[in-house]
Design brief:
ATP binding, alpha+beta, Ser-Thr/Tyr_kinase_cat_dom, Ser/Thr_kinase_AS, globular, protein tyrosine kinase activity, 5 helices, Protein kinase domain-containing protein
């Protein structure tokens, strides 16, 4: 078992199992969890798209909750773009298309639509074949959120620009 990162109330780990699959899990301390995690399990346990990181399962114990996700061996897009190896434009375009297809599924393939709210290069994970998958659904919302809910999590400067230009539409999935 390998620790990957430590974030508040969570720990990302890689777990090797005696099968061709490798899984990652996120462990949460129960006393720091709100209803979001149970909603996340209910929603993401039912959806599947090739460009979304899959929630494989979960394990609930008295003091912990572990969410089990697939392992993406190719790291994240931020690490790949800032690394010493350069990506061809064809590969970059395919990663952008993969990411757009994942967002399209969240926005148009799910009912109600799911707004990720934190799409950025560290949250685009890549497998060993550089297939991009959107991950880290730490603050998704249904498309029924209003503009004031967006302000609580989004960038105020960006929100003001959208309102003044009258180009605000729902859903918004940028930060």
């Amino acid at each position: 078992m390998h620790n990957f990162a430590l974030v508040p109330f969570s720990c990302f780990r890689r777990v090797d199992v005696p099968s061709p699959s490798t899984f990652v899990y996120i462990r949460h301390r129960i006393n720091k969890i709100d209803l979001f995690l149970s909603k996340q399990i209910a929603v993401f346990g039912k959806i599947y798209h090739k460009n979304l990181e899959s929630l494989i399962g979960y394990c609930e114990e008295p003091d912990n909750l572990a969410l089990v996700y697939e392992y993406m061996a190719g790291s994240d897009l931020k690490a790949l773009l800032s690394g010493s190896d350069s990506l061809s434009w064809k590969t970059r375009l395919q990663i952008a298309i993969d990411s757009a297809q994942g967002l399209d599924y969240l926005h148009h393939g799910c009912r109600p639509a799911i707004i990720h709210r934190d799409v950025k290069t560290p949250n685009i994970l890549l497998n060993q074949h550089l297939l991009a998958k959107i991950a880290n659904f730490s603050s998704p919302r249904s498309s029924q959120m209003n503009i004031f809910q967006f302000y609580q999590h989004g960038s105020l400067g960006h929100l003001v620009t959208l309102i003044l230009s009258k180009s605000y539409t729902n859903p918004i999935d940028i930060s």
